[in-house]
Structure formats: C-alpha cells, structure tokens
Amino acid sequence: MVRNLEYPKKPENTVKRYNSRATYDLGAIHSIINTTSVLHVSFAPSADQPFPAILPMIGAMGSFEYPSSGLDEPLDCYLHGYVSSRLMRLARESPDGLPICVAATKVDGFVLSLTPNSHSYNYRSAVLQGYARLVETAEEKVYAMQLITDKVVAGRWENTRVPPDNVEMTSTTILRVKIESGSGKVRQGGPHDEPKDQTRDEITDKVWTGVVPVYEALDAPVPSATNKVAQIPAYLDRYVSEVNRGNREIALNAVNEP
C-alpha cells in the first residue's frame, strides 16, 4: 500500500471547521499552490503596527537541493519580489527567518441551493506556514527564477533571453520559505439542502438548484506591438490548450460528490 507524505497536524494547521474536507497531503497542497496564479503572503510588519500585512505575490514550490523532487515530496516555496520591498527588508533583518503564511485558492463552481444559507463554492484551498529567508547564491536565484517563470507559462524560460543580466539579478530578490506546516481544504459536489426544505413542494417546484462550474480560461495569445515572430510558438499554443482543457475537466468533475 502506497502512503502519501503528509504535513503533520499541529495547532496552527489543523482544520477544525468541516474537517472532513481537510487534506494534509503534500502533493495535493503543493499542486494547489503551483496552479494558483497569485499567492497571498501575510506577515507581521512590525511590533507597533496592529494590522498584519498581506501581499499578492508570484511563487512556486521547488527544491534547489533536490531539483528532481516531485510535488508529493518536501519542498520549499520560492517567492519573487523587488529588492527594496518591505517584505524583503524584514526577511533580511531576520536571521532565523521571517514567519509568514502563504495562501492559495481555486474556485471550481458556484453551488446553488434552495436557501441562501446553504449556498457554497466548490473549491480547493491551501495554506502554508514557514520561515522566509533571502536566497543568497546566484545559482539558487536563477533556479528559482526559472521555476517561477515556467509556472507562469510552462517552457517560457528557455524561450526568452536568459540568463538574466547583472541589473536584473541585482534588482530581483527571491525568498525561500522553509515550510513548517501546511493544510488544504477541498469541497466538491452538489448542494446539500436541509431535509425540511427538500420535502416542501412550494419551494422545490420553483427554485433551481445545482452547480455552475467555474474555471480559469486562457484566450488566444495576442502579439505585442513590437513582436516580430509571425507564428504563435508551439509551446505557448500547447500550454494554453492544456491549461484550458485541464481547468474545465477539474471544474466539471467537481460537480460530482466525492
């Protein structure tokens, strides 16, 4: 029997509400992170500021030490940012690493029920907690930049001017988040109405219930004003088609009860 690796349950990551939807599986959680275009990163800006800071960032899971590692193995989260940003400064000033949280959510459907209180989403969400440190070596920085670039569009790195020049390397900072804990939550299926409402014909005869599948779709690439390449590159055309097909399939499958 194959046993998937899981994040250990700790007070900070154990799902309490609707815990039947929880997952601690590394592969499932890392997949949600890697298929979400924008990650939300939260941290404490300073002791004298009452509100936590939350930043939308681009990031990806990977392992510089073991680059062939799969999504179902222990990985770090690499985040891309500008050298002078507050988050990068705080990480630079934290010798033990800056505590941060990384969150990602994919919506797969609108679940429409008989009553407003029973409406829901089909969704996949993930939260990671860890300590962020600046990537110091040029080799690891290039590794992370390629990882993040290819997350945006698979195969894009090798189809651009690479490696980055000195100015680009200097102005870009990469954070490596060593993950301490993580959890995910997945909801799929149709509406779950109260039995008292399902037996009332005056309601069920006039209220439509079901799921509106939701998925992110990529349109045909539009060339820039300075583009000189006549044909859309095969890797880009293939990426758009595969993402659209995969996202639609996930949303339609999520209509079914687990």
UniProtKB/TrEMBL annotation:
It comes from the Eukaryota. SUPFAM superfamilies: FMN-binding split barrel (SSF50475). Pfam families: Pyridox_ox_2. Residues 190-202 have a biased composition (Basic and acidic residues). Residues 181-202 are annotated as: Disordered. Gene3D superfamilies: Electron Transport, Fmn-binding Protein, Chain A (2.30.110.10). PANTHER family: 5-NITROIMIDAZOLE ANTIBIOTICS RESISTANCE PROTEIN, NIMA-FAMILY-RELATED PROTEIN-RELATED, FLAVIN-NUCLEOTIDE-BINDING PROTEIN. This is Flavin-nucleotide-binding protein.
